[in-house]
Batch of 2 targets.
Target 1
Amino acid sequence: MLKFMFAPLFVLPLLRSADTENASVQIRVALIRNAENLSLATKGRLYLFEKPTGEKYQLLPDSNYLMKPKGNKIKIDGKSLYPPITLIPPEGEERIKINSQSYAGEITISIEDSLLCIVENVPIENYLAGVLPFEMSPLWPLEALKAQAVVSRTFAIKNLKPDLPYDITSGTEKQVYKGINEANKRILRAIQETKGEVLTYRGELIRAYFHSCCGGHTASNYAVWGEKIIRPLRGVRDPFCRHSKKYYWQLSAGSSEILKFARQHGSKAIKIKRLRVLKKDSSGRALKLKIYTNTKPLVVRAYDLRKFLGPRHFKSTLIYRIKKTKEGFKFYGKGWGHGVGMCQEGAKAMAKKGKSYRQILRHYYPKARIKHLK
């Protein structure tokens, strides 16, 4: 049975809450891309707007729907609709649940390369409630959470792309976002007490990067990504994270793995003899590595080897020793992540020492200013 109620007289706004104080900035988050189908559960009323035709529907409460792409249309419970379609929960009522995750904003579903693309349009402060619990533990000191709120807000707004279908993705390549399921009172307090605050330098928003642990010195954005260097992202000495469990790391890699990597980068070698750091940046992070083989040596980017071996294991490019072993090589390093911007472990330690979130931000982004969004 088709679970639609056609509502031709119902007037739907294209944006929800856009004129309220809490929604002065909206961000479009790509929740899911390249999906073959989509599971949708309704609790209360939920409205659907078929943009190309202007048709409006009300989905039945307490119902489950399965959406699939079919040609240039989206099929939902036997009915085919022209994309894009928008799902809009009434103000103050039950949220939209997609693939078991709850979302508070408008959901737009379109077709990209014959697959579904799901984007949420959500007020920035609501978006932060779905980011902070996954980027920093809610149990950490409040001032650290407040620093993270300012950083994540700045990072998100800096990524607004009005000419593209969405502004930001929801995975680790940007900021992890999983809707409103995990927000607790401490997270909401951190967001509320910093509401609208962002980091700027010379009148412009900065790219407020952050990472897990810097290993004693943050990196510059130029050294990591080749971006134009600015004072807040030049890198600073950081004594605060040294007691973190993430400060040191070790990784063993077999000679066969290094050989495979070398061959992928143009080497004709059949044997790896030695490996050393060839060039470092000002923070001590490896920029270039030199691989000695049975043929000519190969110079590669340390970033590329980290990506090849896996960033969850090869935790940073702050390598202080490479040891030859019977099986291959053992890497000794410090920190976890790219190293640019705020060190989360350092922010936690600073907050425990009584530092405010403003002091934390001043340390990691020197010369940046905290401003309120207008």
Note: DSSP finds nine helices and 25 strands in the chain.
Target 2
Amino acid sequence: MPYQTPKNSCGFPIPYGNPHAVSVSFPAMSDVILYEEQDKEMLQKMQSGYPRFFRNRFVARAAEYLEENILPDKNSVCIPISDAMAFGQINAVVKGEYTFVEKDNFHAIAVSAASTKIPDIKKFLQNTGMIPSSRMAEDFLLAQGILGETYLEEYSASPDPELFIRETISKAYEINEPERVLLGVTGMAAMYSVCNAVKKQMEHSPKKIFVQLGWLYLDTMDILSKYGNAKIFFGKDSLEEMLNFISTHHAEIAAVVTEVPSNPLMQVPDIEKISELTRQYSIPFIVDSSMGTAYSFRLTAYADIVIESLTKFACGNADVMMGAAVFSKTEIASALMLSVKAEIIKPYQRDARRLAFEMESYKNRVLESSKNTIVLVDYLHTKKQVKQIFSAVKETPFHKDPKNIVPPVISIQFDKKLEYYYDHLSFAKGPSFGTTFTLGMAYVYLAHYGLIKSQGGKKILNAAGLHPELLRLSVGTEPIDEIIAVFEKVFEN
């Protein structure tokens, strides 16, 4: 049967029992809403969460240790960060009086508990993913004698796990040069490093505009709008409008950014048209491929830089945070690669060892999930309870092998309020995607709850084609009959 968390599992880590889990169980829609409302009782239940939004328990305990034993000023608090480079980045963007704290390879920023800058620092870390690894915190706690041993898990036997990861990614994206793959501590850290490198490169030119095609992941949109100058195109005619804008304003454009496919509507834009125009005007074209995996589309033929969150399909077990920036062989990409290499925050070694082990089965897992996705979409199209399905199953010129490899994520709009189906479907339910087990998520509620609560926000979502009642489903590798049986049980009743 598909992976299920235990009964009454609200707040339990997904995977269950794993202290490095990056997802959390929200078995009912009421749990999702209570979390978004920051209900105190709900937050006390939570043993895990997506690490950029919820502090991992090891990381929280390590920060407490620093506050209790290192900080001379007891009116200060420690905000954990990835390393000294993150401290410099925070100082550059969120200016204030801070102290860098470090002990046994664990790092934090110390700030007055009364500082009005704390929310800005936390938001910056959420957007950029410059957070410490849970394994880094675990090793720190072990060194202080707070833990007696580390969590038992399997690791790669490779003498150079980072090289193995870069070789695997390089081959998957068909560039076959591992030095053109840079690893970051998270996917958002990779995205921020690339956008920041573009911004610095254009510092003394009129090119300040980051053009965004489609409704992108919320933190990507924050990076483009808050740390750049974003021009956003989404909706029915957005591609043509964007192409016309580029033709007219190319002298002002720093970069073009999109997702292939988009999250959560799984739309695939005409990346060949975009590429032709961006290359004509020497504009960097950046694509986030996280929803599509490294195997679904021929992206480096069109994009200059591809960003992938390796936390998702590359990992498969929702227990490692990491990202990659993949540089094609264009002159634009080569020039930016040197800048990104100098400032991207590199992953923790134990995370690399764990991810290298998991990536040994990356392509095979994607193949299994893809086959399941194709069959599941065909099945759901026959059901009267399903009003609309959003998928990237339909063949495009950019698919590598559309009969066998498609993005294993779909979004579904049902004939009733999402709550009914969300509560009754017995899959694991929580944030993230790309797991070997099928994982459901009330995406719009968890990503854009603030917009759902106002009429103005609902208009914005409607313009972007985002129905609040969508269920996003990351399709796992379980036998397809078992996945369909979960739906069939609910539809029959």
Note: The first helix runs from residue 29 to 36.
